[in-house]
Amino acid sequence: MELDDLIYNKIVKLSNEGDDFVSHCKFDEAILKYEKALDLLPSSHYLWEAATWLYVAIGDAYFLEQKFENALNFFLEAQKCPNALANPFIYVRIGECFYEKGNFIKAKENLLSAYMLDGEDVFSDADPKYLKYIKQII
Question: What are the residue ranges in the chain where pLDDT is below 50?
């Protein structure tokens, strides 16, 4: 299924505006743009690829704000969307969130999943402590 071009273009525009806010560390404004874009998706939005990247964008904004519980919730929602289970970035962020919340077992599971999907490359922008945490296993 594909989104109507008009709706898709509105979603992309709002998402780009959200990305601009993130680049200026205006995370709350970014989240509002991403949520507005998410609201444009038809019901059963878990069926749409756009939902995947919008949930990831919201989760990432919360992560960068160090609101790890909120970030985790959005990344877990992203996993319900198309192609998410093959996305190593989502596993990295989920692992980082669990790590920061002190759930090291779940952190390890998700960080290892990311590593298995993409190797060390997926950790290139992450704090080195996360890769170091799983290095003892790999």
Answer: none
